[in-house]
Design goal:
137 residues, globular, alpha+beta, 4 strands, four-stranded antiparallel sheet
Length: 137
């Protein structure tokens, strides 16, 4: 059974809060938000436990073709509702300990709030989101 402290430590070391901005007019979402954590294949069980703990997200196989990198798996939550209702509240109560992760989570949360208010649908809001994204690691 995973504890909140264990999850925070794991995310501090191997997790990320990130987003991607789409410029394609064919894509529905302009801002794709993502919480993810990547581990080696031998540690995949932890990712499955994370999925069960949060009750959302998926575990994906990730092949890395770089030298000295083997098979990995990635736990990922992209669904906005799941991010707003499960991931963000968890990290509000259990903030990352590393300054860089804490900063990235704060920015991620701010961008999520802007997206929830449909700021990504306006030029001004999109500019604000881009400026915030540039401050992330």
């Amino acid at each position: 059974m995973l504890s909140a402290n264990y999850i925070v430590g794991l995310v501090d070391g191997e997790g990320s809060f990130n987003l991607r901005l789409n410029t394609s007019q064919r894509r529905r979402a302009k801002v794709e938000m993502r919480f993810s954590l990547k581990l080696r294949a031998e540690d995949k069980e932890i990712l499955d436990e994370l999925k069960n703990y949060f009750g959302c997200g998926n575990v994906y196989r990730q092949i890395d073709k770089r030298p000295n990198h083997g098979l990995c798996y990635r736990y990922e939550v992209q669904n906005r509702k799941e991010l707003w209702e499960k991931i963000i509240p968890f990290f509000e109560k259990n903030p990352p300990q590393l300054a860089s992760k804490k900063r990235d989570f704060g920015i991620f949360k701010k961008i999520a709030s802007l997206v929830k208010e449909n700021a990504d649908k306006t030029e001004e809001g999109t500019k604000e989101i881009i400026a915030l994204k540039e401050k992330m690691h």
